[in-house]
């Protein structure tokens, strides 16, 4: 029996009743976060921040104003970009509407299609980052139009207006990537209409849904824009149909139609592969917190379960060597949609 | 002269050797004497001299049954060495013996059944050995053995775990049938005699094999005291668990769908109860369970990573026996015995749980409430129902010595229901009084039904055949419904919503297998089979209705999504030959040809299998295997914890079948009868693995399952070490696995290779059992394993492009980029057994997770907040402080258990 007692005593020694559920993870060293999308006919707009580990507060992410950003292209152009700081007024509008960062690196030189640009970002406290990108050529839009809307009953507000939008274009041979979004433009005029800085143009994205693009892309339509590949229509003329809808009571429907038909633009972008992959890899909750710079906390996401119960994990794309983010490029066509 | 011969014959009572020196004639009656004794007698009674080596005789001499009477020397020697590959040369009076490689000797087949002498139960894996040359075989899954030997007088030894060794002398001069009944050892001897006396693992060609006897399985401490076959296998190297407590198996880096669970030859899908915490295999009905991780013989096919072959008992032929087992989670009973005559026997076992009522009582106590405030009366009732059951039944009928019929049946089901009922009367100044009644229910149900009808036959030549008609059905259903009734003086409004999702597989098949031992130490197996599958790959039924004032009833939705049934025919042929080139060198070579016909598409595969063993020193052997496998089935499982609602899907026109190639190299050392060490390394490549596409939304109803999946590759390699102590009061094993398993899909992780979710760099199991005395046994096991991999955003940043797009990015750098903290756990139990006048009683007390380790199943990120923040108009709001924390979420704390078992 004494053997039994010794055995049980030994077992009881292990009874420690572990309580500590908080764990420490091995975080990688902070890196620079570089985000930019070069667009034809516009100057470069590059932001440089530090990354955070998931346990840090967003307020700890700072724009790295000491960074030196060197932009060059394949024709011999090289420039150290200047740091632009928003004015107080711009900052106010940025906070409310334009979503601009408080600083950005920019240049007076306009970006040109078909050119390959390289970026080098130096900062004393971080590893130097590199990336390169070619601005895609234009994919002309043949036509874009709004079809008639239809109305159907629903179980909530009783009526839903379905609005169909079509865009037709010739896809060039080879892999191509596109982004399409649908936005209304409104001009806010400040106290001084003559002052350009007091006039702000807003693009308000309208959520759209697309059923006929590809078997994969449809999952990303929770974002305000749609990104797609030409996997299923490579080199062909393609007409893409989008649907947007609005739940309303009957008396509201006319207002909806006015809203849709006035100052509405279709933005059709031919994306670089890196930019497409980055956009594709973003969390589907993109846009849930449209003004993150204003908040010092994350009340929007009190508990985040890592193993998402209803979707597969998504890996974030990154084409910044030694850093995070994206150095992307696109060629944009903007088409006004007129509809009565 | 005749007188002299007669006199010598009298003198040589044991080995009668009579000679006629002058006429060079011999008379020999070998009897039981050895050849050296016979030669000695000949030499002492003649002028003849023999030159030979003892090694030659030991190796090549087979006893002669001849009765040589007065024959010339050369004719007498011809008869004496008739059954031996021994030649001779006569020079003057000198006879030189040598190994005659070209000489052929007749060979005969010895076959029959090995069974328990007290119950008639067939013994699977018993060792049959010819002690003359230590060649032997093991009984197959029906207790049948067959092996060919040169004609000889041989001593056959039979051994089996827990049974008294058996020996019988046989004159093998024709094909013979031999039925052997082994006597069980006494209880204490069970522990002592746990090793195979003759056929140690260094003498068996099969590698990557784990055979567990029910006695070993029952000695392992278990969750809530529930004995579980699969949990016992999880303690072996090369077998990983999904999450703690779960019976899901990941063998050598393979997926959960790559294991073929066979219950009496019928495939089982998702063989678990209680969301995976218990397997459906009721140990009371099990005769033997075998796991093969690699080096698959050609008779097996259809899965890439493992075969778990579970054989049920035939039932006691000698008398009615039973067992009752009462545990904390479930209770079970079994009853077996003869039915009318000993030629017909049955076994019936059943198990059910009472977890549901217990949890329901706790749940109701915690959640039910009555609210009675001014103007409001509200009653809330919560319901929780859970139960599972399984039933195994088998009927065995022996038509005659050569023909047996078996009918087996298994059914098992899990049902899980929750509900919430709310009835309230609401009255306020703002609106008229109304009643609101709502009822919400959800359910989850899954289970297997299988049946098989089998005919075993032994032909006169020793050919064993098995014809098996099988039926299997796996069914899964989940659903939810809600109903709301609103009643006021002016309005009556009803609304209802209901959904259900169901999937499953139905199999009907015919299998025919043959086994025959042929001359030259060949054990030949061949067979064919065909299974017709009907897949229901998931149908979602949605309906929604409402009515206003009972007159305006409208059904708003009634839609069936994704309802598709896919029919397929899977067929196979195989041939397999186990050949012992010498006692030290053996091979098992085979071919498995399979075909799968689905949606007009035909997939086929020729799968070579090769196993080799070379015993290079006493007790030491190296083994190697090469296997190619093809699997016509995929399990679409989520990256999170697997559930029964993971979809079983077949290959289709667009989805290809899975393939694998595995190479394994092993070393076995039987250090003594006490210890056995095995070390195996393996390398496995897998193709056409199926996965949900990155970021896919499981609830997206617009796409079929084929549109949500991608196919890719996998690779795993590792080393497994198993050290077993097999004898005496202290028995157990140490199992260790060092491994790596990766996956690569073009559409996942940007095409980069990533670690498999269940990649286990280290996996260690210590299992020990100590027989304190003939009544008390102490058992313990400790496990340690590297944690699972999860995809976790270690970094985050706000992201802004050209002032246009702003997002909060949680940066996940790689698929499965974070390894969860390691899992480790100690389980202990003590068994108190007592032999009763009729039967036996065993009390088992146990502690699962004895030191209450919180082993993580997943991580939660609790986002913190600062002491204050500024809102959009610049006001500072105080909200307190909470740091962001990552917490591991464990599942199973320390669980004591008590279990009572009574056999009668």
Straight-line N-to-C gap of chain A? 95 Å
Poorly predicted regions of chain B = 1-22, 187-198, 866-874
Count of individual domains of chain B: 3
Helix share, percent of chain A: 10-25%
In angstroms, what is the radius of gyration of chain B?
Answer: 34 Å
Main traits of this protein?
heterodimer; A: 340 residues; mainly beta; nine-stranded mixed sheet; four-stranded antiparallel sheet; 19 strands; globular; B: 904 residues; Immunoglobulin-like; Maltoporin, Chain A; 3 domains; 22-stranded antiparallel β-barrel; five-stranded mixed sheet; 8 helices; disordered N terminus
Short description, anyone?
The complex is a heterodimer of chains A (340) and B (904). Chain A has helices at 2-13, 88-98, 253-261, 273-281; strands spanning 32-39, 43-50, 52-53, 68-73, 78-80, 82-85, 103-110, 116-123, 126-134, 141-146, 150-153, 159-170, 177-189, 199-205, 226-229, 237-248, 264-271, 303-305, 323-337.
Secondary structure: elements and pairs:
The complex is a heterodimer of chains A (340) and B (904).
Chain A: H1 2-13, E1 32-39, E2 43-50, E3 52-53, E4 68-73, E5 78-80, E6 82-85, H2 88-98, E7 103-110, E8 116-123, E9 126-134, E10 141-146, E11 150-153, E12 159-170, E13 177-189, E14 199-205, E15 226-229, E16 237-248, H3 253-261, E17 264-271, H4 273-281, E18 303-305, E19 323-337
Parallel strand pairs in A: 1-19
Antiparallel strand pairs in A: 1-2, 2-7, 4-5, 4-8, 6-7, 8-9, 10-12, 11-12, 12-16, 13-14, 13-15, 13-17, 17-19
Chain B: H1 2-11, E1 16-20, E2 25-29, H2 35-44, E3 49-51, H3 54-60, E4 68-72, H4 73-80, E5 86-91, E6 94-99, E7 107-116, E8 127-130, E9 135-138, E10 144-150, E11 152-159, E12 166-172, E13 176-177, E14 180-182, H5 187-192, E15 209-212, H6 214-218, H7 229-234, E16 239-241, E17 249-251, E18 259-263, E19 266-268, E20 272-273, E21 278-279, E22 286-292, E23 306-312, E24 321-326, E25 330-339, E26 341-353, H8 355-367, E27 369-373, E28 376-400, E29 403-426, E30 434-458, E31 464-488, E32 492-518, E33 522-548, E34 554-561, E35 565-580, E36 585-598, E37 601-617, E38 620-631, E39 634-636, E40 647-649, E41 658-669, E42 675-692, E43 709-725, E44 730-745, E45 754-755, E46 762-771, E47 776-785, E48 789-790, E49 795-801, E50 805-811, E51 818-819, E52 823-835, E53 840-848, E54 856-862, E55 868-870, E56 876-878, E57 885-890, E58 895-903
Parallel strand pairs in B: 3-6, 7-13, 7-14, 18-23
Antiparallel strand pairs in B: 1-2, 2-4, 5-6, 7-10, 8-9, 8-11, 11-12, 15-22, 16-17, 18-19, 20-21, 22-23, 24-25, 24-58, 25-26, 26-28, 27-28, 28-29, 29-30, 30-31, 31-32, 32-33, 33-34, 33-35, 35-36, 36-37, 37-38, 38-41, 39-40, 41-42, 42-43, 43-44, 44-45, 44-46, 46-47, 47-52, 48-51, 49-50, 52-53, 53-58, ...
